């Protein structure tokens, strides 16, 4: 890294540290301000629920199970059970506020072949879905990457994906038409049909407050998506949604609450136990929707014995949960007020909490009530417009085991196999092999070229190889799609290690021109220092993972 780039790099790191610190401060202030109180939240039985939904959660849409064709439910549910039975769903070791923690839910990524999804510093690799009419690669024809059971399962999820692509488009268009019609009806601030003047004023005030809040948040929320796109301000006209609704992956979640001993209480509203803490979905194309299928099943599907002990620490579902955390925010506070109600009210609350729910809140806001939406088995919900940016969501555990399939349009500019393979070729272009002596040398010693290569070297090692060995390899026992490409990538990486060594030789060579030598040494030193630091972080994570695994084994005995 050039000194200038390096400065920029550290400035960015500092900025992200600062914003992390700022967020922590805000979170603390929020919790302090709240004290023992809880912010109200509304469920369907509460008066004003629909109004709150319309005014503050308009980007959320529920699609009840009857909206999907019967056959699809069956295929999708049996696909989810297959994934679970085959041991494809695993708890991820993710990084939250500088700590390594296991997610409470078990997950798998299914999606376009060669795609990955990065969340909480973890890169997941897709189990490819095989779509109708898909052209098979030549070698794949001879030897499919998954057995037919798994293939069918992934295909069912692809079918669900197709349904979501068209349904979300339709729903969004329909809502757009409705919205623009009601805009005309309500122009000049005249009260709309069935709406009293007072409530229009309330809404306008609310709208204004919301706008102010959004402006404030603009600065707060993470803008870094890893790519050059950034969310347009919310006042921008809605983009052509059709182009955004091309879900390319689904992240499957599974959790059986009876196997979890220490789920965290939702801390701000007292909504109940959380399976997934408050969060925004990361690394999505700005303004793209998310579509979720929810399947609660009465009993834990029987799992096939996983024989291969691969050090993932995943075979024990009855975790002691020492290291488990529901991602996002959350503290282990006592169950708050709502439960203190008496008689039937209490029963009502308990009944409500038996059901799985999705919770929503406006980000950094303690004035707008939260929303808890119960999900019956087979129900779907959509998060559209900029709901994911302006709001956070969490998942509230019900009594039964539950799967969800969460379809997303992930940012893929730096996340596909194609992309990283191209980067590898770019780097290796600088390696010259003398055909006779079979010695190798560097073609160009230009600082920019050397820097570029060292950057790729780091990207391949930390964003792909180590992530794969850490997370992706776990799929290898039932899906071979990534095996060969990753072996090739490792070979490429070894060549890059060789190139670094060659550069070191040039720098150490007394015959190299002094001026160039210094510049090259600088690049090399910076690259090696960064690499060293990164490698140490990975080693620590690895050690942590092994220790957690060993602890689980000991406690399980
Ligand atoms: O399970 C759900 O309903 C949503 C899960 C979720 O928010 C996520 O995986 O990001
Ligand atoms: Fe989410």
Write structural notes for this entry.
With 557 residues, the chain is α+β, with helices and mostly antiparallel strands. It folds into two domains: 15-408, Jelly Rolls; 416-556, Methane Monooxygenase Hydroxylase, Chain G, domain 1 (Up-down Bundle), CATH 1.20.58.1470. Helices cover 45% and strands 17% of the residues. It contains 13 helices and 19 strands. Strands 2, 3, 4, 7, 8, 11, 12, 15 and 17 form a nine-stranded mixed β-sheet that branches. A six-stranded mixed β-sheet has the order 1-14-13-16-10-9. A two-stranded antiparallel sheet has the order 5-6. The radius of gyration is 26 Å and the shape is globular. It binds 2-oxoglutaric acid and fe (ii) ion (FE2). 2-oxoglutaric acid (AKG) binds next to strand 8, strand 11, strand 16 and strand 17.
What brief labels describe this structure?
2 domains, binds 2-oxoglutaric acid, Jelly Rolls, ferrous iron binding, binds fe (ii) ion, 13 helices, Methane Monooxygenase Hydroxylase, Chain G, domain 1, alpha+beta, globular, 9-stranded mixed sheet, single chain, 557 residues, 6-stranded mixed sheet, 45% helix
Quick structural overview:
Helix content is about 45%, strand content about 15%. It has about 550 residues and is an alpha+beta fold. Strands 2, 3, 4, 7, 8, 11, 12, 15 and 17 form a nine-stranded mixed sheet that branches. The chain has a six-stranded mixed sheet with strand order 1-14-13-16-10-9. A two-stranded antiparallel sheet has the order 5-6.
């Amino acid at each position: 890294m050039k000194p200038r780039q390096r400065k920029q790099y550290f400035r960015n790191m500092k900025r992200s540290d600062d914003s992390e610190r700022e967020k922590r401060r805000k979170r603390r202030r929020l919790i302090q301000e709240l004290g023992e109180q809880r912010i109200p939240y509304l469920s369907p039985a509460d008066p004003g629920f629909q109004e709150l939904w319309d005014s503050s959660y308009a980007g959320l849409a529920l699609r009840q199970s009857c909206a999907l064709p019967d056959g699809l439910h069956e295929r999708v549910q049996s696909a989810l059970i297959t994934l679970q039975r085959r041991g494809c769903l695993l708890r991820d070791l993710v990084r939250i506020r500088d700590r390594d923690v296991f997610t409470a839910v078990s997950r798998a990524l299914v999606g376009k072949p060669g795609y990955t999804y990065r969340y909480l510093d973890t890169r997941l690799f897709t189990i490819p879905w095989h779509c109708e009419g898909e052209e098979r690669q030549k070698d794949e024809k001879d030897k499919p990457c998954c057995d037919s059971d798994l293939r069918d399962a992934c295909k069912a999820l692809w079918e669900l994906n197709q349904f979501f692509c068209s349904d979300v488009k339709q729903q969004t268009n329909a809502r757009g038409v409705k919205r623009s019609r009601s805009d005309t009806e309500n122009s000049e601030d005249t009260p709309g049909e069935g709406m009293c003047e007072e409530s229009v004023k309330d809404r306008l005030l609310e709208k204004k407050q919301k706008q102010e809040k959004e402006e404030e948040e603009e600065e707060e929320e993470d803008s870094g998506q890893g790519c050059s796109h950034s969310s347009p301000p919310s006042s921008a006209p809605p983009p052509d949604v059709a182009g955004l609704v091309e879900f390319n992956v689904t992240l499957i979640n599974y959790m059986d609450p009876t196997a979890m001993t220490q789920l965290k209480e939702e801390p701000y509203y007292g909504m109940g136990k959380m399976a997934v803490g408050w969060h925004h979905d990361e690394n999505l194309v700005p303004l793209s929707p998310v579509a979720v299928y929810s399947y609660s099943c009465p009993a834990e599907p029987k799992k096939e014995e996983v024989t291969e002990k691969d050090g993932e620490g995943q075979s024990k579902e009855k975790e002691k949960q020492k290291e488990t955390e529901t991602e996002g925010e959350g503290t282990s506070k006592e169950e708050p007020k709502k439960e203190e109600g008496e008689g039937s009210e209490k029963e009502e609350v308990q009944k409500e909490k038996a059901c799985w729910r999705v919770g929503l809140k406006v980000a950094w806001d303690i004035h707008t009530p939260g929303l808890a939406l119960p999900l019956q088995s087979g129900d779907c919900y959509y998060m559209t417009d900029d709901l994911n940016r302006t709001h956070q969501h969490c998942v509230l555990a019900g009594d039964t085991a539950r799967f969800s399939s969460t379809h997303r349009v992930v940012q893929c500019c730096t996340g596909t196999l194609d992309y990283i393979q191209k980067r590898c070729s770019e780097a290796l272009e600088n390696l010259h092999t003398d055909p006779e002596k079979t010695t190798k040398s560097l073609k160009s010693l230009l600082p920019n070229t050397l820097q570029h290569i060292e950057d790729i070297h780091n990207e391949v090692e930390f964003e792909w190889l180590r992530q794969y060995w850490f997370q992706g390899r776990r799929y290898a026992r039932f899906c071979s799609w990534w095996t060969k490409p990753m072996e090739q990538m490792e070979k490429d990486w070894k060549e890059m290690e060789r190139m670094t060594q060659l550069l070191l030789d040039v720098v150490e060579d007394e015959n190299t021109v002094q001026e160039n030598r210094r510049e090259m040494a600088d690049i090399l030193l910076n690259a090696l220092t960064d690499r060293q630091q990164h490698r140490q972080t990975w080693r620590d994570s690895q050690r942590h993972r092994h220790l957690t695994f060993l602890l689980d084994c000991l406690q399980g005995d």
